[in-house]
Amino acid sequence: MNKTAVCIISGGMDSALSARMAEDEGYEIIALHFNYGQRTQQKEVECFRKVAASVHASESYEIDLPFFEQIGASALTDKSIDVPTGGIEEGVPVTYVPFRNGIFLSIAAAVAEKHGAEVLYIGVVEEDSSGYPDCRENYIKKMQDAISLGTKDETKLEIKMPLVTLKKSQIVQKSLELSVPLEDTWSCYKSEVMACGVCDSCRLRLKGFKEAGIKDPIEYKF
Question: Are 7 and 30 in contact (CB under 8 A)?
Fold first, then answer.
């Protein structure tokens, strides 16, 4: 009997590596992506489809969550709020989408329960992240407890976050070791055509490649 893992795949480098690690551990992959009105939504969908194909996903879900735009309060979903380009912000940045990962994990748990999956993979990174509270390891563990209490007794779902303690340079190196198609991943918060190179996410990605001594295969404006 095949082992099954639901993998949340944004189209970014971290979630692509997380899904590859799940495949490498022998899991049949169910790929899950969310369209929530983010600025680079179309590009992320394109990357998700390529990453899902690269891990030979047996099934893919693309779930629309339009209410995030209605809630707003984030530069990713509210175009009246500028995406910061002046360097990494202290504290919780304006690109934080309120409780996004909590909502993603809840929906992913429903998909996992439907398919009888044993594990749910999410590519959160705590140490080298942009300060998002919903990327913290202790938070994800609490969500696992809540999911366990809110699902059927026979549902035994573990949330795996294999990258949570890694630096971006380590993620780059591990991605190369496992042949993750980094050219098919996207991190930019601002642009869908060519990465801006100056938003927080681009800066973190470029820093990781630089520290790893590797050239990023995607194109940048700067």
Answer: yes
Question: Which helix H or strand E contains 72, and what residues bound it?
Answer: none
What is the model's pLDDT at position 60?
98
Q: Is 3-212 assigned to CATH 3.50.50.60?
A: no
Residue 129 is given by DSSP the state: S
Cα–chain center distance at 58: 19
pLDDT (0 to 100) of residue 131:
84
Instruction: Name which of 62, 4, 63, 61 is nearest 29 in CA terms.
Output: 4
What is the average pLDDT score of the chain?
95
Element (H, E) at 70: helix 67-71
Angle at the Cα of 123 from the Cα atoms of 21 and 160, rounded to 5 degrees: 65
Q: Are 35 and 65 in contact (CB under 8 A)?
A: yes
**Exposure class string for 146-182: b at 16+ Cβ within 10 A, else e:** ebeeeeeeeeebebbbbbbebbbbbbbbbbeeeebbb
| Residues 117-150 pLDDT 10s | 999 999 999 875 568 999 999 999 999 999 999 9
The three-point CA angle 80-81-83 to 5° equals: 130
